[in-house]
Amino acid sequence: MAKGKNNKPHIGIFGRRNTGKSSFINTLVGQEVAIVSEQAGTTTDPVKKSIEIFGIGPAIIIDTAGIDDTGELGNKRIDKTMGIIKTVDCAVLMISGNMFGEFEKDLVKYFNSWDVPYIIVHNKSDVEPMDERLEQKIGELIKTPVLDFSTINPQNIETITDNIQKIIPASIFQKSSLIGDLVKKGDYVLLITPIDNEAPDGRMILPQVMAIRDVLDHDCINIVLKEDQVEDFFRTTSIKPALAITDSQVFNKMKNIVPANVPFTSFSIMLARHRGDFKKFLEGTPIIDDLKDGDKVLILESCTHQVNCDDIGRFKIPKWLKEHTGKDLQFVVVSGLNEIANKITDYSLVVQCGGCMVTKRQLKNRLKPAIDAGVPITNYGMTIAWINGIFRRVTEPFRLVYA
User: Fold this and answer.
1) What is the pTM of this model?
2) Is it true that domain 10-173 has CATH number 3.40.980.10?
C-alpha cells in the first residue's frame, strides 16, 4: 500500500475487533468513510482513505482488521494488519472495555520494532469509562498516555487530533529537494526522457515529473529532450547544463554523448539519494561482480503494473546481470509492498527500484531486513550504471555534496 505522489501522513488504526476503529475514523473525519457495524470483524482487509482531518490537514487513514481475529482466514487478516504497520507514519491503538492484554502488547512491540510512534485511545467511554488503575498500569508499562474517548459524545476530539499531530514525524511535512543542492538559480538542467513502452500513454513517468517540478522550484531552466535529440543539442548549442539527468536504461548511449564536463546522473539514482540509504546503495552495488553461480537476487518493485517483455525489473535487469557476470543467477521479483518470499539471507543481493511510488519510511522499512542481515542492496539505476562502467561518474554529483 504505497503513499504514491505525495507526503501526506499515513495514520494506521489498530486494535481488536469491535473496539470501534471504524466509528473512530468517521468521528475523526467528520463524515462516514468507514463501514460501521455492531458485528465484530466487519473490517476484513486494510482500507485506505484519503481524508482531511481538522488540525492535521490532508492525510491517509488506514482502517485495519482486528488483531484478535480467528480461524485460518482470520489469521490471514491479522498478517495483513501487521504488515500495514511497516507502511504507516504513526498509529492509533484502539482499546475498549478496559481490555489491555497480550494482543495490545504484541502490537506495541511491533510498533517499536518498526519505529512507529503511536497513541492509545480507550474508546466507548460512554459505555465503560477508563479504569484509573489500568491507565496507570499502561503508563508504567509503556510510558504512553491513554486518552479516554467516546464516538457518541466526542467532546475531546481536539485533544485526540492534537496528540496525533504531535506524534507525526516532522519530516513528513518538510519538503526535501531532489537536486536543489546541486544547482543554483538560472542554471540549465537537461532531462533526458525516453518515450518507450513503459511510459504511460500521453503522460510522463513520475520521476520525470518530480524532477521537472524540482527544477522549476529552484528557479532553474528545464531542457527536456528525448534520447535521440541529445546529440544534436550538444552539437548545435553552446549551452552547458549544470546537470544532466537521464533514464538509466539509456546509460549505454548517453554516456558517450553527454560531455564529460557535464555532471551526469539518472532519475533512479536521484531517487536513491532522495529516499533511500544512499551510502548502503553505494556500498552494495560493487557486490555485483562477486555474484556466483546459483546466487539468488531479489528484485523489489515498489508499484504494481502490467508486465511486458520490456519490463526493466523482470526482464532487462536479470538479462543484463547474467550477461555482465557470466553467472547462472536466480531471480525473485516482489512487487508493491508484498511480503518477501523466503528468508532475506537466502539472497546474495537486493535490487530496489527507484521507489517513486513509496515514501522514505516505506522504502527504509522495505530494505531494513536486508540491511540488518548484512545483505548488500543496490537499486535499478546504480545496477545499470555499474554494468555500463559509469558507476563512479553518475554517482559523483551526489558524492560531492557529502564531501
Assistant:
1) 0.74
2) no
Cell of 190: 537537461
**Which range has the worst mean pLDDT, 76-80, 130-134, 169-173?**
169-173
Q: Mean pLDDT check: name the lowest of 68-77, 268-277, 283-292.
A: 68-77
Asked if 353 and 313 count as a contact pair (C-beta separation under 8 A), the reply is yes
Residues of the chain with CATH 3.40.50.11420: 188-270+391-402
CA–CA dist 327, 321 (Å, integer): 8
Say which residue the cell 539468488 belongs to.
296
